[in-house]
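Methods — Computational structure assignment.
A single polypeptide chain was analysed. Its primary sequence is given first, followed by the predicted tertiary structure written as structure tokens.
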Amino acid sequence: MSFRGRLLVAHPDMLDPNFHQSVVFLIEHNDDGALGVVLNRPLDLRADEHAAEWSDRVAEPGVIFSGGPVGHGSALALGESSSGEATEGFIPIVGNLGMVELDVETSTVTRMRLFSGYSGWGDGQVEAELSSGAWFVADTDLEDAFTRSPSDLWSTVLKRQGGELARLAFYPPDPGLN
């Protein structure tokens, strides 16, 4: 089963600083592995200073995000297309959300989020981490990719799930400090 276009939400006990209380959007998930970007790790890099040609479409807070621990310096972009259709420069993933090819000008992309680096898993690695309870899988809401409040995204997505998962949204960042 492919989780392409869905979210991986970190279990509260995940202590890896790359993924602690993270929300990862899966761009691809197949037999060879998975690739995604962390949606809630803004960097102190203004988009208008580092990607001026796209800055008019970059969603607030107008910064570049850390997509994950792999390939820092490589740039990826998620965007919202006005049509949701595949066009030159836009590859749909779920609904109107897809990958933006940064080297191709496209007029259908109305807003976007830029990422430095990405998160990657080898064959069967995501499935093993899911089996161990490291992640929850959740449906993507278009606004997750463009949240104005990235520090709240982890708890927002958990609350949206209801039941036991919604209660986890109130888990403290460091339970040892309670």
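Note: The radius of gyration is 16 Å.
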